[in-house]
Amino acid sequence: MALTDTFVKNVKPTGAAAGEKYADGQGLCLHVKEAGRYWRMNYRFMGKQKTLAVGVYPEVSLAKARKRRELAREQLADGIDSGDAKKVERQAKADAAANMFEAVARVWLSKTAAKRAEVTQARITTLLEKDVFPFIGAMPITAIKPRDVLDKSVRKIEARGSIDIAHRAKQICGQIFRYAVAIGLAERDITTDLRGALEAIPELHFSAINEPKQAGE
Q1: What is the pLDDT of residues 39-63, one digit of tens each?
Q2: Is the peptide bond before 13 cis (omega within 30 degrees of 0)?
Q3: Other Cβ atoms closer than 10 A to 154
Q4: Cys staple from 108: which of 30, 46, 95, 179, with CB 3.0 to 4.6 Å?
Q5: Cα gap 161→173, rounded to integer Å
């Protein structure tokens, strides 16, 4: 007999160590344990019995679990192992997250940290977290255009009168893009297209970010 919303909402664990399983039909069942209620789908693929994790109640409702069951059945009908498809989807999402500008930038920060003083590392990190990540951090690095860096980030810094910091932000973004090119995540440093786009300043001291001068310099 198919499950009902009322049953799924009110069912309690019996105390059995392995929990209790309640079938909804076509392989879908609700596994009730002390730790929670879990949707599972049993299926066969290439002669082997397998189980697919469909979700956790109440985040995944009965209706949503049934939709996921139907999707899995459609995949099986097309010769696709639902479990493998889910792994591929998870990996694709993980890869996409790793390719976001902020993720790439933080790896770059970590990889290059030994080349700069701690105070410089902290200042660059603060600049990125304040003036860059909120605007382009969640964008895939391959999708970012020169105008994104200019209009969404460095122009905002320039507008508040911090001309040297605006130039520094563009420079840092360029270093991140060149790192992305080196590891195969980007085709080129798109910030080179912004040459001359910012208001010029006589000398780029970047006093708020550069390494402290050593005695005698």
Answers
A1: 999 999 888 899 888 888 988 899 9
A2: no
A3: 26
A4: 179
A5: 19
